[in-house]
Amino acid sequence: QAQLVESGGGLVQPGDSLRLSCAAPRRTFMWYTSAWFRQAPGKEREFVAAISRVGTKTYNNDIVKGRFTISVDNAKSMMYLQMNSLKPEDTAVYYCAAAQAGSPSRVITSYENWGQGTQVTVSS
């Protein structure tokens, strides 16, 4: 199993940018399909973006397309979520996830490894 640790959350104003990071053991993102999910208060956890092994393909939820970008740095064994033009509805706990088998997926149960989450709050 891969231990994942998120960081980079915080309180920002609408329109601001934020970059979330997910640290993992060496070479994790070369061998695991990975993704970001989020969960707002009182709502179900939802898919944000996914990236294939080695980072060759990315997939976004339409609600963040054009604003959020997922990427990996295999040398540092880090995954990132660059979030631009943040909106109050982006407020949530953001989780990174990784799956040893399969293709990038929007389905929560596809991922067996999860971080603890990092809070992002967008408010004026």
Quickly list its features.
globular, seven-stranded mixed sheet
What's the total helix number? 1
The number of strands is 11
- The helix content is under 10%
Please compute the radius of gyration using only Cα atoms. 13 Å
Percentage of residues in DSSP E strands: 35-45%
What's the main sheet like? 7 strands, mixed
Query: Given the C-alpha coordinates, what overall shape results?
Result: globular
Q: How would you spell out the order of helices and strands?
A: EEEHEEEEEEEE
Spans of 5+ residues with little confidence (pLDDT < 50)?
Answer: none
Explain what the structure shows:
There is one protein chain. The chain has 124 residues and is mainly beta. It is built from one helix and eleven strands, in the order βββαββββββββ. The longest helix is centred in the first third of the chain and has 4 residues. The mean pLDDT is 94.
Q: Outline of this structure?
A:
With 124 residues, the chain is mostly beta strands.
Topology:
Elements: E1 5-7, E2 10-12, E3 18-23, H1 28-31, E4 33-39, E5 46-51, E6 58-60, E7 68-73, E8 78-83, E9 92-99, E10 113-114, E11 118-122
Parallel strand pairs: 2-11
Antiparallel strand pairs: 1-3, 3-8, 4-5, 4-9, 5-6, 7-8, 9-10, 9-11
